[in-house]
Design a protein that fits this description.
Blueprint (H helix, E strand, L loop, with lengths): L13 E3 L2 E3 L6 E5 L6 E6 L3 H18 L4 H17 L1 H12 L3 H23 L6 E3 L4 E8 L2 E5 L5 H14 L3 E5 L6 H13 L6 E3 L4 H8 L6 E5 L2 H12 L4 E5 L5 E4 L5 H13 L11 E5 H16 L19 H16 L3 E4 L18 E4 L6 H4 L6 E7 L2 H9 L6 E5 L3 H10 L4 E4 L18 E2 L6 H5 L1 E8 L9
Helix pairs in contact: 2-4, 2-6, 3-4, 4-5, 5-6, 9-10
The structure holds NADPH dihydro-nicotinamide-adenine-dinucleotide phosphate.
NADPH dihydro-nicotinamide-adenine-dinucleotide phosphate binds next to helix 7, strand 10 and helix 8.
Length: 492
């Protein structure tokens, strides 16, 4: 693989019908390394005519792929997951250059969790089936059929993982997918497309069209596309759903959150602090499910804060390609300014910066979008930093007295992506999570997302689920076939 680190990554074309093709739009943009501000390469933009070409190609791909058996499809996906694992290191470096996240994360999570997903659905592909029901003479059966051409639209925080989480179940079920990566991170989806082709996926079954919101819109509004799966912000989710409604497409939305992490007095303090760090500073805080509202019960609050501050100070921020780095650069200068704006706002609202609170002083990092991991103490529920998704390394600490009180406060948000509870009292843990309004809850850990476990949000954090067996429901439809064995009596 050519390496952008060595400055030799060529202009990236669109990937349509099993090969790179020049965009008919004639337009391009530059993708930038968030840690240095340097241009990695130029990337071509898919306009409406390119999306048209991608749909025509996907139609052909779908015609072949959907007629293959599940076993054959599983074999192709299995080969793809093996290639992903073989190229883990190179792909992880590319992901680091495009996202600014630490290599110590990308090398063990991003590509591997994508490969896990492709492997999981490769295993399920052969066992997808309908049902037969005897009606005492006549009978009916159901066929589980693919939807057709699906659009996947990705966010920039986990680009290759998101591309795998959408394409693997879609392909396992016999669909074709056209994928639009976020414009800030367009590189690894193209590598995934190359890998699928190498693994034997028929041309047209996985096309990649880079671009901005307008490219996404061309997909969500296209009458030839049967389903859209988006990972992005709540506002984008609403627009996508409205556009998709014009042709009544199936829609899956994985959106933002402002999730609560609740620590009771009896929790193991070390584990709870570790959980809070993972829930706020992994991928420099750019994780949708992060538990950014950390509610700690009064009796443990001060000790928890002291240990949290001590451990946060120990986090190593710096060059994302340095294997020792734990906090990388935020995705863009614009996003960095947004996060810094929230930190200023938190101060103005009266929260106390217990650690962090701005950019690092290191001059060598000045051109990158670095923000210190920040803990705000003394927060109140009505502060903007506590209510709004910041999507950066900013933790808000809140204290509480009673179980009832904290459940009500945790649920007082339009979001409902995730939640966490730390306690040694397992009866309480289950009682509390049963009442939390969240799609995914963790007990005594945080942000663990095995591929077998459904993932998604309730309320405004999303619709539908990714991963696990349930995703099959979102990429297939049932056809009922009634069979009469005894002719037709005429009522006339
Ligand atoms: P955005 O919503 O800005 O963008 C997501 C994708 O949608 C991008 O590819 C974007 O293109 C595209 N897009 C934007 N507008 C439209 C439109 N009108 N029609 C079709 N497509 C459109 O999200 P971010 O990329 O900023 O990602 C961060 C957000 O994603 C956070 O809110 C985070 O919580 C959420 N997220 C949710 C996850 C989950 O599983 N629940 C996981 C990861 C992130 P472009 O990039 O060119 O603007």
């Amino acid at each position: 693989m050519t390496s952008p680190a060595k400055g030799n990554l060529p202009e990236q074309k669109l990937y349509i019908h099993g090969r790179y093709q020049d965009a008919l739009s004639g337009r391009s943009f530059e993708t930038v390394n968030p840690a240095t501000g340097e241009v990695i390469c130029s990337v071509q933009v898919a306009g409406a005519e390119d999306v048209e070409a991608a749909v025509a190609s996907a139609r052909e791909g779908f015609a072949r792929w959907s007629r293959m058996s599940g076993t054959e499809r599983g074999r192709v996906l299995n080969k793809a997951q093996r290639i992903l694992r073989e190229r883990n290191r190179d792909l992880a470096i590319l992901e680091v250059l495009d996202t600014g996240k630490p290599i110590q994360e990308a090398e063990v999570v991003d590509v591997i969790s994508g490969a896990d997903c492709v492997e999981y659905y490769a295993g399920l592909a052969a066992s997808l089936h309908g049902e037969h029901m005897d009606l005492g003479g006549d009978f009916f059966y159901t066929r589980r059929e693919p939807l057709g051409i699906c659009a996947g639209i990705g966010a920039w925080n986990y680009p290759i993982q998101i591309a795998c989480w959408k394409s693997a179940p879609a392909l396992a079920c016999g669909n074709a997918m056209i994928f639009k990566p976020a414009e800030l991170t367009p590189l690894t989806a193209l590598k995934l497309a190359e890998i699928y082709t190498e693994a034997g996926l028929p041309d047209g079954c996985f096309n990649v069209v880079q671009g901005f919101a307008e490219t996404g819109q061309a997909l969500t509004r296209h009458p030839g596309i049967a389903k859209v799966s988006l990972t992005g912000e709540v506002g984008t989710g609403k627009k996508v759903m409205a556009d998709a409604a014009q042709s009544l497409k199936h829609v899956t939305l994985e959106l933002g959150g402002k999730s609560p992490l609740i620590v009771f007095d009896d929790a193991d303090i070390e584990h709870a602090v570790n959980g809070a760090l993972l829930a706020n500073f992994y991928t420099q805080g750019e994780v949708c499910s992060n538990g950014t509202r950390v509610f700690v019960q009064e009796g443990l609050h001060d000790a928890f804060l002291a240990r949290l501050v001590e451990k946060t100070k120990g986090l190593k921020l710096g060059d994302p390609l340095d294997p020792k780095t734990q906090i990388g650069a935020l995705i863009s200068r614009e996003h960095c300014e947004k996060v810094l704006g929230y930190i200023d706002l938190g101060r103005k609202e009266g929260a106390e910066v217990a650690v962090g609170g701005g950019r690092p002083e290191n001059a060598a990092l000045a051109r990158g979008n670095f923000v210190l991991p920040t803990v705000f103490a003394g927060c109140h529920d009505d502060m903007a930093i506590v209510r709004e998704e910041i999507f950066g390394p900013v933790l808000s600490l809140l204290s509480f007295k009673e179980e009832e009180e904290v459940i009500a406060r945790a649920n007082a948000t339009p979001f409902g992506l995730s939640a966490g509870v730390f306690t040694r009292d397992l009866a309480r843990a289950h009682r509390v999570v049963a009442r939390l309004e969240a799609g995914t809850c963790w007990i005594n850990t945080y942000n663990v997302t095995p591929i077998e476990m459904p993932f998604g949000g309730v309320k405004q954090s999303g619709i539908g689920r990714e991963n696990g067996r349930i995703a099959i429901e979102h990429y297939t439809q049932l056809k009922s076939v009634y069979v009469a064995l005894n002719g037709v009596d005429s009522p006339y």
